[in-house]
Amino acid sequence: MRTWRVRLDSLWEHWKSESGEKGAQIGCALFSLRREEMYGYRDEEWMIPASNNKLWTSAVALERLGAEYRWHTFLEWTEDRWLIVGGGDPVFGQRQAEELLTEIKRHGIQRMPGRIDWDDSAFPTRRWGTGWARDDLSEGYAAPVHALNMELNRIAWTADPGDPDPRLRLSPSYEGLSVQWRSRLSWTEEEESDVRVMRAERSNRFRIEGVLSRQDPQVTGAVWSPPHFFVERLRWFAKEQGLTVPETWTGRRRRKISGRMQSVGVDSPPLKACLPLVNADSENLVAEILLHSIGCESGGKDWVEQGIHIVEQTLRRWGLEPPAAYVDGSGLSMYNRSSPRQLCRLLRFMVDHPAFSVFVESLAVYGQTGTLKKRNPLPPPITVRAKTGTLTGVKTLSGYLFDGRTPVYVFSLMVNGVREERNVENLQDAFLRLLADHIRHERN
Predict the structure, then answer these.
(1) Residue 429: C-alpha distances to residues 16, 376, 413 (Å)
(2) Cβ neighbourhood burial of 356 (10 Å; 0-12, 13-18, 19+)
(3) From which domain of life does this come (predicted)?
(4) Which ranges of 202-334 would DSSP assign to H, the alpha helix?
């Protein structure tokens, strides 16, 4: 191992010099599963993990909730009103809505009432993570957390790359939501957009500015009220299902309705099917709902604080040191602090966990899926499954390097104080190529 230790040590300093990222802070922990040896480069320093924080959340969620865990959404009704009861389903969308409406029709209901109330009291506490930047709260990736969620609580615009200038169109139309927007955008040929989404208080009026990538011409914004959004989308799906829908509706947040109620319900997919949204696609809302659910299933009043306590408690029971600061489930907060060594030990622990196959399959595949889809894959049979993390000035990558179907290395590479994200992506590529070269050298 001595040779590649030297090569790794030189890689960091050479990268800083060549990339101009002289002020960047690099930390790396690497564990060889074949040799049971650890390599570390400033691996015990506390760093901002960004979305690598989701690894803590998802690992503990598998332990505490179980791979088959499901969220439940109910619809209760009387003759003149409906009550939608949310259980926290983070992936509720068209399929679940149609299932719910199909069940309603089986009970002979052919008309949607003009009074639709909702109950999202299952998650009674925080709507955003601790330390989330106020400027982010209108962005699609920072949608508020509710027990009643629809289509990740965000709306989407798309533009035609063939237009001379980006002209945003809603996709779908979001009928009934009174979505308004003004945009000032230009095209970029780069892979990534640089767009800022701003929303007026208590409304779905947006201002959108920046440069939009022709390769990925989509913009998302967080809705101001997920329960209102839920009801309006449900009304749309009800029309599609052939129910009679009043032109307008009234409703409010309540816990119960008077009179005799009937009820139908629909379950979410199991946790194991939702986990790739967290670790491969890095959906912050889903990660935050995991943290809420961990706390909710264990009792207490503040689900977030209870969830944080259980995450730290579970890690200690596993014999692992918890993060120095774990304040949200997704890693969107700049207050989180972990070290590369801690994350590497978590990933090493999960290799022997009964849910390892679910955990590892939830990670993005380098050059193929999720947030790593656009990266350059390594030559077969070497593959990498990993979790990315990106915030302003932060770029992290933690995961596994496989030789065929066998995990060979566990790693966590964290970089803070970055000026250009692409520079760190080049470093990640070089790091993984070096490990792949070492495996090929050992074979020969």
Answers:
(1) 15, 8, 11
(2) middle
(3) Bacteria
(4) 226-240, 271-279, 284-297, 303-317
Nearest to 312 by CA among 115, 101, 29, 56: 56
Burial letters for 273-285: b for 16+ Cβ neighbours within 10 Å, e otherwise? ebbbbbbbebbbb
Statement to judge: residues 245 and 315 lie in one domain: no
Q: 309 and 164: one domain?
A: no
CATH code for position 283? 3.40.710.10
292 and 258 in a single domain? The answer is no
The range of the structural domain enclosing residue 289 comes to: 2-67+271-443
The total of other beta-carbon atoms located within 10 Å of residue 272's CB is 18
CA distances from 136 to 51, 140, 143, 293, 331 (A): 15, 9, 9, 23, 13
CA dist., res. 38 & res. 18, Å (int)? 27
Closest listed residue to residue 138, CA positions, set 189, 218, 187, 201: 201
Q: State both tokens at 153.
A: 């609580």
Give the pLDDT confidence score for residue 175 in this predicted structure: 79
Are both 143 and 238 inside the same structural domain? Answer: yes
Tell me the whole-structure pTM to 2 decimals.
0.96
183 and 252 co-located in one domain: yes
Among 237, 267, 297, give the residue marking a domain's end: 267
Q: What sign does the dihedral 98-104-109-113 (CA atoms) show?
A: negative
Pairing of strands 218-222, 154-158: antiparallel
Indicate the residue type of 181: W
Closest CA to 94 of 235, 237, 190, 205: 237
Containing 342, the helix (H) or strand (E) segment is: helix 340-351
Is there a single domain that holds both residue 303 and residue 411? Answer: yes
Q: Kindly state whether residues 304 and 258 are assigned to the same domain.
A: no
Consecutive 10-residue runs of the chain (444 residues): their mean pLDDT?
Answer: 80 95 96 94 98 98 98 92 95 96 94 94 85 94 96 96 95 83 96 95 95 96 95 94 93 72 93 98 98 84 90 98 98 98 98 98 98 93 97 98 96 97 97 92 74
Dist CA 43 CA 123 (whole Å): 37
Question: What are the residues whose beta carbons fall under 8 Å from the beta carbon of 220, sequence distance 6 or more?
Answer: 139, 140, 141, 154, 155, 156, 157, 197
Alpha helices in 220-302 (DSSP H): 226-240, 271-279, 284-297
